[in-house]
Specification:
Elements lengths: L3 H6 L5 E5 L2 H9 L3 E5 L5 H15 L4 E5 L14 H6 L3 H13 L22 H11 L6 E4 L6 H9 L3 E6 L2 H10 L3 E5 L12 H11 L7 E5 L5 H9 L4 E4 L13 H6 L1
Parallel strand pairs: 1-2, 1-8, 2-3, 3-4, 4-5, 5-6, 6-7, 7-8
Helix pairs in contact: 2-3, 3-6, 8-9
Bound molecules: flavin mononucleotide (FMN).
């Protein structure tokens, strides 16, 4: 269980806990795994608070952050406002969402109202993400992970110059090759079971394919993700050659998670 990646990161076992909840991140790290804060949706100010909170609780143990910086963001750094982006959502898409929620008796009366939690899309562009990373680099993070696509080259080199590993979610051989060529250190091979945002290939098929695609890149480690929630599943993924596992859903029902009681009951 004490793989090369454990030694690189200074963790006891290769269990990576992805969560948007800081308590889960700190708990996974304190237990000997590696907590990763999902920072999508946070502002730089909120990120500062969350990372300060985690740092104060992990007593020097390692943790990381995950951001979403799409490689092909439309109008990458142009000044498109969020209102303009919203106005491009087709009426049919909105009515589909409304119908779906209504069918499940969920109130849709304020569905399209502006809320304080609305995401600021500028943070998903390279310049905005850089602002987030400037905050992150004030803290002893040990890994930065990009949720979608190849991380920008400038961010990879900045992270490496600070001794921070760079990871990327990976859903196919093609993604794996592109990440490897860009200099990514850790590929999170996320099967379709991981909510599908990386693609539809099942974890048990994807992990060996990713490992095969990066043969020859000796310093890259591959984590398995998607549908993993038990020790035996973790052992199975490592038997396939994964350096460890990256789990998300399993934390949703834990006492540390901010998940609502209704969802916890259903888990
Ligand atoms: C509630 C939730 C939110 C997620 N948000 C993100 C995200 O912002 N960035 C990201 O890289 N992955 C995100 N993921 C996916 C996880 O990184 C991970 O790939 C996935 O949870 C693994 O599959 P599992 O849920 O079956 O363990 C999210 C997962 C969950 C459950």
């Amino acid at each position: 269980m004490n793989t090369r990646l454990c030694k690189k990161l200074g963790i006891e076992f290769p269990l990576f806990g992805f969560s948007h909840c800081r308590d889960v991140v700190a708990e996974v790290t304190n237990a000997g795994g590696f907590g990763v804060l999902g920072a999508v949706g946070l502002t730089p100010e909120k990120l500062d608070v969350e990372l300060g909170w985690i740092t104060d609780r992990v007593n020097g143990k390692p943790f990381g952050i995950d951001l979403l910086i799409p490689e092909k963001m439309l109008d990458k750094d142009a000044n498109t406002t969020d209102a303009e982006l919203k106005s491009r959502i087709r009426v049919g898409h909105k009515s589909y969402v409304e119908d779906l929620l209504r069918r499940h008796q969920i109130d849709t009366s304020d569905l399209w109202d502006e809320t304080a939690d609305d995401r600021d899309s500028s943070l998903m562009r390279e310049s905005g993400a850089t602002r987030m990373l400037e905050v992150a680099f004030k803290y002893p993070i040990k890994m930065f992970v990009n949720a979608l696509g190849v991380p920008p080259a400038s961010i990879i080199s900045e992270a490496h110059s600070r001794g921070i590993l760079v990871g990327a979610l990976t859903g196919s051989r093609r993604h794996a090759t592109k990440h490897a060529q860009a200099g990514v250190d850790v590929l999170v091979a996320a099967g379709g079971e991981a909510g599908g945002h990386c693609g539809e290939i099942a974890t048990i098929v994807l992990v060996p394919e990713v490992l095969q695609a990066i043969e020859g890149y000796d310093n890259i480690d591959v984590l398995a993700a998607g549908g993993i929630a038990t020790g035996s599943q973790m052992a199975a993924c490592m038997a396939m050659g994964a350096a460890g596992v990256w789990c998300g859903s399993v934390w949703l029902a834990t006492s540390e998670a901010e998940t609502t009681p209704t969802v916890k009951e259903k888990c």
